[in-house]
Amino acid sequence: MNEVFEGNGSCLCGAIRFTASNAEKSIGACHCKMCRKWGGGPLIGAHCGSDVSFFGGEKISIYNSSDWAERGFCKLCGSHLFYRLKENMHHFIPVGLFEDQNQFVLERQSYIDKKPSYYSFSNNTHDMTGVEMIEKYGKS
Known about the structure:
Structural class: mainly beta
Oligomer: single chain
Number of domains: 1
Distance between the termini: 24 Å
Strand order of the largest sheet: 6-7-8-9-4-3-10-11
Number of helices: 2
Shape: globular
CATH topology: Metal Binding Protein, Guanine Nucleotide Exchange Factor, Chain A
Strand content: 35-45%
Order of helices and strands: EEEHEEEEEEEEH
Number of strands: 11
């Protein structure tokens, strides 16, 4: 099990705040086309499980991005708030939203075969291709 902490944060305008009781310190970057299109670059997110509380939730808009996941964003400032699995309500929250970002260590990269050539992280990470992700999790 990864080391966790209670993390707090907010969107850019502050209209939505959150508390994630079990934010993992080990984070990952997703290079899939959908994540890159959503944010203009890879999604670098912390797995926070299902114990996440949002304040200002009426300002959250949900985009149903696939049969198994949805993405939330602030209706006012457009900040990306989470990628959430529908089956178990597990949240992956962009690390830039957390107040204390010094807790995190980049340890994983997914869809590494979809990463464009114009950037590269120097961290030594566990990398998985799209095929490996589908084999492991059964989802693309």
